[in-house]
Amino acid sequence: MGGYGSSRYGFSLSKTTTSDCIAIxxxxxxxxxxxxxxxxxxxxxxxxxxxxxxxxxxVENDHVILNYKHRRSGEDWQEKHYPVYLDWTKxxxxxxxxxxxxxxxxxGRRVAKLYSMGLFACRQCHQLPYQSQLENEMDxxxxxxxxxxxxxxxxxxxxxxxxxxxKGMHWKTFERLSAEHDFHVNQSLMRVALKFKVPMTYx
Length: 203
Known about the structure:
This protein is α+β, with helices and mostly antiparallel strands. Helix content is 28%, strand content 28%.
C-alpha cells in the first residue's frame, strides 16, 4: 500500500486512490470460511511482516459488525463499532456470492470491497479512483517495466539498473524479457524527457 498521494514510480499523484487505503473483501472472507454465523474473527493488515492495522469482526445472520480503533493525525483514538449488512446473489454454476451493502447513510450500494478512510465505505462514497485511472502513459510504462523486474527477481525501480539472469531461466526467455524491459524503460525515460524538457540525447 502506497503512501498518501504517492506513486510507487516516484511521480506524485494528486488524489488518494484505492491502493492507498486498507480494504475488506467479502469474497476473501467467504473463501476462508469466515462468514458462518454466529462467529467472530480478527483480521490483520501486514507490512514487511508486521501488523499495521487490525479489526475484530462479529458475524451475524445478515450482517457483520466491525470493531476497531481509528485516529486522525494529532487526534485521540476513537472506538468504531457498527454493522455492515450482507446480501447474497446466486452464481451461474450454483452456490451464492456474498456482497457488502455500503453502510454510508443513503448509499447501500452492493460491493465486494469496502475501503477505510476512518469508516469503511464503498469506493464511490469515498470518491476513490483506482490507481490505474490516474496513471498517465509514463506511469504505465514504468509499471510494465517493474512487472518484468519482479518476474526476473530484480530490485523494483528501473533506476536501480538491470540484474542478472535468474537461475533456471532459459537464456532465450531472459533475453526476450530483458528486451521488453528495456523498451518500457526507454519509453518511460522519453516521456520524462518530454515532460521536463530534458534534451533527448541524454537518453
